[in-house]
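Mods, move this if it's the wrong board.
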Amino acid sequence: MAVEFVGIDPETDREHCPTVWADAEAQEILLQGWKPDAGTQGQCEELSPATVPVPDGEAIVRLPARMIPLIREACDAVERARLR
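Not the wrong board. Structure tokens:
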């Protein structure tokens, strides 16, 4: 797996640091963020087309909007690798 660090929340306090990575080889983006509270988790599950709880191997993460440029950069890295 060739994971590439893309960036960290520009306003991080270094203890709570949402982060973005790209794995161009696997064509995946990896995100680290905050776990949602139970109310938010429930809303997301309720709005899911399948209306089922999030499976054990999956998670909902919350990221601040200020990280959108980093997420776009990760998307671009994966897309560039796909076009090679």
